[in-house]
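name: query_chain
kind: protein
chains: 1
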Amino acid sequence: MDSDKPAELETADPVQWYKEYWMHCLKCEGLEQSISRLHRKLPLRHSSHDGDTKSRNSRLFYWRVTDNSYEDSEGKGRVKFSGKHFDLFARMEIGSSDFVPVVNVKEDDSGKNRVYASRHFDIGDAITFFSEYEEKHGASVLGGIHVRQVKSPEACNAYLTEDRTLRCLETIREGDEITRMANSSEKIERLERIDRVVLCLDKMSVGRIGKEDWPGKGYLVHFADGTIEFEGPRHLLVQK
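structure:
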């Protein structure tokens, strides 16, 4: 075993510990299963002149639909994003009743939907998920289906990880359009490792890899008790 790298289990799927509560819950509950279920009854709130009206369950997130800019297929909650303005709000912290704006979807002059940041994202931040279910069925559940794909690496500011997390590749300011590379097979290891669960063997405590990457020293591991240390041989990347 390479002493400069942490030990890893020879199994398939990495375990993540997302800082964002809504994303962590969706992943723990099974991303693909959750997205499939939510597609059938998407959490919505309708915005009108009288204020927001809650119409469906919004435990982790909801879309705020402005005016009549949505189409509800036969009242079954399958929303077609073919209107003008949709805002995704999500619960970022456990126990909090606050929902924070994440992204918004707007229609451009050609009639195509595009995704814009509703807040600031730093490099490595998780933006949203884009599940295999959404890609296969062309479904809009968390907005990823509308992220514009570009051919030039210089023109993209987001990266889709192997676990279907859309992460910030370059600093994204509020109002910036979110774009990602089209048909890219290039793997960006530093973004793939963020939020991976780590077990510290000498003190038997659980942590997660942060987005910090110190040249020559590697990644920082954040533990539940608030301590931070550099990733090393005693840290085991947890997989299932």
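note: The longest helix spans residues 31-40.
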